[in-house]
């Protein structure tokens, strides 16, 4: 039965497939999995898929889509076949991400204080000052242990020859870690005994690591500091993740309306009165954090929060103003930052990127627009992108006009043929494009990365966009011990 | 504990308890509607569970399936089980990290069960009791889970206060409405099925038979519903629990607020304990029940002021 599956699996041309080499030869590190998997009948696999859906639904791992006044519960699509990473690949990724984070953190410290990197003309001044996420309010603010990036979700992709590239550095409020944890829980139910048999490294220590780092940031020297997770509330699409993390760490989940600032200190409103808050792990964007400093219409934030933060009375995670480091125009300079701050060669490659504010590069991109992906520098979630190879002529022309209005807002990258992995779709194995988001935690003891991450899948046939808002799903991600 | 969290816990518990009371009411009334030669009226049920002025509702008062559908599944009816359970779940969702994961899953499943289209089919085309039983089982699961896994702390105290407050308000509403029908129709005093029905509605039929051997008597029924401390739906039992769980909040409270509310709860408990309900006539009973109800609302309001609105 399953042999048929494998025989009928068609690799995309010129694409690196994570499981299959060619025809029915698979990569060595999938052997254990395939030996087990091939014992399952089609009926069983369909049942497993059903079970996965039921588990997500009954545990409320859902997000709500509001349509004509009625909330509809949706689950984030999950593919039952895990994505497997070898220990050698993982060592490489780990080293690369640690190096990159170290440099990016130094960059943030520098750009909000002495700005040596600008004075030494490594990064042009206008690239930084034109970035909407560069916040002057952060200038000379002392953050605990000089850590700006506590949590990063750096997106990696693989090209047709299997080389890893960094696609984006998500250094503000990266999400998805709860799916890394839940996907693993679901796999344990779907394939009993398989995880120990295959030698898959555990991801469960993530909440404990994060909690330890948050504790170490408390500005008050008390044995039991108050740590809160600040969420925009239950109508946010990542609310499930906020509650999961709060529960797993045993910290209070708060909304802006639960907090108040008095004498430049932050308090939460409790049944007994006000209780001082020491560390805020916020899942609210910079713009909405404090209506007195940023967006005055925000009801998600807390008036006076920035004052308390600047005064050093509360720690905010991730630091405010990190957006200047994961801006897509600044991205181009990350390899230079690594050379400048660390005197090392970058381990992980950048995807070649054209700055459209540069005349020559703009012309080159326009001439080759069919092979390009064009993105907004401050965009995210896969919105507002132009996929050159798939867009109609009209779309392309309209997009060009947009670009010419403000070229600084756009970058272009050659279309990368993302690696594919087999997915169980309508009773068949079919290749779908994937990426990888490992979650790195940065604390006073250094950077640690839980072995695993979120593998996002572009579930639409032929699609290269993995974002969940664009019809993406996810897979459990296994890192093998050897 | 955050004020917002305390409020959500209290309300989630009230909503679940309310849905439980409604489901049992619907089940008993539907069963009686199948066991009568006269035209069965749902008027008292409609009066308890929706606002009085809904005239069009009274048009369907003899159509059991239509009434059940309205009270169970109507989206426009703010007090339908569907909407109440949705509210209970929304409250639970916003305090997920304060209740055990098992309990959250119970509520989540309760919600998904209410939204299951199969229920409507049972109500419209098949046996409505099956639909009610499916839901009643969900509440039982919830209550059992809450009892066996909830940490004995502040969260549970707020939830139990909400639960017993809701339960006592419901019992009093049922008594009040049932006895006021008697004043307009004295024949009911000797109607055995009327009394049986009342006792079933408050879940006290079996206990009544064991306690009182001489048949149905209005005074005994009131005594059971108000003063029997072994009856989990009596007003006195509920007050005892409200007092007990409120006392546990003492160390977590602002002391002045605590004393005020403690006084009010104690006073109401005494008012119930030392009343002579079994000697009252209908008019006295009505004004007595009205007073107790307003005291219960008063306790709810003070909880809101002292514990939930802290800012």
UniProtKB/TrEMBL annotation, chain A:
<dbReference type="InterPro" id="IPR016450">
    <property type="entry name" value="UCP005522"/>
</dbReference>
<dbReference type="InterPro" id="IPR051680">
    <property type="entry name" value="ATP-dep_Glu-Cys_Ligase-2"/>
</dbReference>
<dbReference type="Pfam" id="PF14403">
    <property type="entry name" value="CP_ATPgrasp_2"/>
</dbReference>
<protein>
    <submittedName>
        <fullName>Uncharacterized conserved protein, circularly permuted ATPgrasp superfamily</fullName>
    </submittedName>
</protein>
<feature type="domain" description="Circularly permuted ATP-grasp type 2">
    <location>
        <begin position="82"/>
        <end position="458"/>
    </location>
</feature>
<dbReference type="InterPro" id="IPR025841">
    <property type="entry name" value="CP_ATPgrasp_2"/>
</dbReference>
From TrEMBL, chain B:
<feature type="domain" description="DUF403">
    <location>
        <begin position="1"/>
        <end position="308"/>
    </location>
</feature>
<protein>
    <recommendedName>
        <fullName>DUF403 domain-containing protein</fullName>
    </recommendedName>
</protein>
<dbReference type="InterPro" id="IPR051680">
    <property type="entry name" value="ATP-dep_Glu-Cys_Ligase-2"/>
</dbReference>
<dbReference type="InterPro" id="IPR007296">
    <property type="entry name" value="DUF403"/>
</dbReference>
<dbReference type="Pfam" id="PF04168">
    <property type="entry name" value="Alpha-E"/>
</dbReference>
């Amino acid at each position: 039965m399953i042999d048929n599956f494998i025989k009928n699996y068609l690799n995309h041309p010129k694409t690196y497939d994570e499981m299959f080499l060619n025809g029915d030869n698979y990569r060595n590190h999938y052997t254990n999995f395939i030996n087990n998997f091939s014992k399952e009948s089609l009926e069983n696999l369909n049942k497993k898929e059903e079970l996965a859906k039921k588990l997500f639904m009954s545990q409320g791992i859902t997000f709500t889509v509001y349509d004509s006044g009625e909330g509809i519960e949706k689950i984030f699509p999950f593919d039952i076949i895990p994505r497997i990473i070898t220990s050698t690949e993982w060592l490489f990724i780990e080293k690369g991400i640690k190096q990159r984070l170290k440099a990016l953190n130094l960059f943030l410290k520098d750009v909000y204080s002495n700005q040596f990197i600008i004075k030494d003309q490594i990064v042009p001044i206008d690239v930084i000052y034109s970035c909407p996420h560069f916040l002057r309010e952060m200038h000379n603010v002392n953050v605990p242990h000089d850590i700006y990036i506590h949590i990063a979700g750096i997106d990696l992709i693989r090209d047709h020859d299997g080389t890893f590239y960094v696609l984006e550095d998500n250094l503000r409020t990266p999400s998805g870690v709860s799916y890394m944890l839940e996907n693993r829980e679901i796999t344990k139910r779907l394939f009993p005994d398989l995880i120990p048999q295959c030698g898959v490294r555990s991801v469960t220590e993530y909440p404990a690591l994060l909690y330890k780092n948050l504790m170490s940031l408390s500005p008050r020297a008390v044995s039991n500091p108050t740590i809160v997770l600040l969420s925009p509330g239950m109508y946010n699409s990542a609310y499930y993740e906020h509650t999961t993390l709060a529960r797993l760490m045993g910290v209070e989940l708060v909304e802006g309306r639960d907090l108040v600032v008095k004498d430049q200190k932050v308090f939460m409103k409790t049944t007994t009165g006000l209780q001082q808050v020491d560390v805020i792990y916020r899942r609210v964007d910079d713009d909405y954090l404090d209506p007195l400093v940023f967006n005055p219409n925000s009801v998600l934030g807390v008036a006076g929060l920035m004052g308390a933060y600047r005064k050093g009375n509360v720690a905010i995670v991730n630091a405010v103003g990190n957006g200047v480091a994961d801006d897509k125009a600044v991205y181009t300079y990350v390899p230079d930052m690594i050379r400048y701050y660390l005197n090392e060669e970058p381990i992980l490659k950048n995807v070649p990127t054209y700055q459209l504010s540069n005349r020559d590069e703009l012309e080159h991109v326009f001439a080759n627009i069919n092979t390009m992906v064009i993105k907004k520098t401050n965009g995210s979630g896969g919105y507002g992108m132009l996929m050159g190879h798939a867009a109609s002529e009209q779309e392309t022309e309209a997009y060009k006009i947009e670009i010419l209005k403000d070229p600084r807002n756009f970058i272009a990258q050659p279309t990368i043929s993302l690696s594919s992995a087999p997915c169980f779709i309508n009773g068949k194995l079919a290749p779908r494009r994937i990426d990888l988001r490992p979650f790195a935690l940065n604390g006073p003891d250094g950077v640690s990365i839980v072995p695993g991450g979120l593998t996002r899948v572009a579930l639409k046939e032929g699609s290269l966009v993995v974002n969940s808002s664009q019809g993406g799903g996810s897979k459990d991600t296994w890192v093998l011990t050897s | 504990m955050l004020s917002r969290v305390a409020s959500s816990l209290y309300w989630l518990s009230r909503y679940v308890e309310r849905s439980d009371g409604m489901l049992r009411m619907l089940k008993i009334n539907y069963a009686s509607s199948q066991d009568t030669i006269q035209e069965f009226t749902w008027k008292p049920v409609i009066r308890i569970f929706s606002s009085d002025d809904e005239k069009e509702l009274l048009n369907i008062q003899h159509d059991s399936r239509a009434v059940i559908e309205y009270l169970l599944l109507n989206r426009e009816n703010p007090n339908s089980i569907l909407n109440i359970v949705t509210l209970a779940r929304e409250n639970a969702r916003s305090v997920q990290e304060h209740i055990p994961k098992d309990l959250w899953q119970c509520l989540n499943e309760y919600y998904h069960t209410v939204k299951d289209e199969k229920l409507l089919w049972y109500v419209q085309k098949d046996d409505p009791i099956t639909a009610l039983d499916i839901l009643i089982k969900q509440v039982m699961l919830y209550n059992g889970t809450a009892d066996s896994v909830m940490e004995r702390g502040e969260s549970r105290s707020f939830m139990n206060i909400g639960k017993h407050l809701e339960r006592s308000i419901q019992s009093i509403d049922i008594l009040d409405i049932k006895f006021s029908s008697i004043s307009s129709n004295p024949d009911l005093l000797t109607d055995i099925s009327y009394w049986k029905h009342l006792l079933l509605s408050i879940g006290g039929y079996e206990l009544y038979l064991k306690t009182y051997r001489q048949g149905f008597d209005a005074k005994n029924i009131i005594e059971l519903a108000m003063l029997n401390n072994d009856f989990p739906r009596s007003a006195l039992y509920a007050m005892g629990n409200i007092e007990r769980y409120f006392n546990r909040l003492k160390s977590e409270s602002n002391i002045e607020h605590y004393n005020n509310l403690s006084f009010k709860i104690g006073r109401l408990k005494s008012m119930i304990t030392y009343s002579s309900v079994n000697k009252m006539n209908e008019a006295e009973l009505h004004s007595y029940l009205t007073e107790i109800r307003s005291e219960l609302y008063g306790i709810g309001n003070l909880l809101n002021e002292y514990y939930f609105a802290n800012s």
